[in-house]
Amino acid sequence: MSKKISNGRVGLVIIALLLIAAVSASVYLVSKNQNLMHLGLDLQGGVSVTLEAQPEEGAEITQDDMDKLSTIMSNRVNEFGIAEPLIQQEGSDRMIVELAGVTDSQEALDMLGKTAQLEFLDPNNNVILDGNDLQDAYVSQDQSGYVVALEFTDEGAEKFADATTEFLGQVISISLDGTVISSPVVESAITDGRAVINGMADYDECAELASLLRGGALPVDVEVLEVRVVGPQLGSDSLSQSYVAILYGIAAIFLFMIIYYRLPGLLTCLSLLLYGLILFWVQSLINVTLTLPGIAAFLLSMGMAVDANIIIFERIKDELRHGKTLSAAVTSGFKRAFKAILDSNVTTLIATVVLFYFGVSSIKGFAITLSIGILASMFTAIVFTRFMLKMCVNDKVLSKRSLYRS
Question: Contact at 8 Å (CB) between 391 and 11?
Answer without folding.
Answer: yes
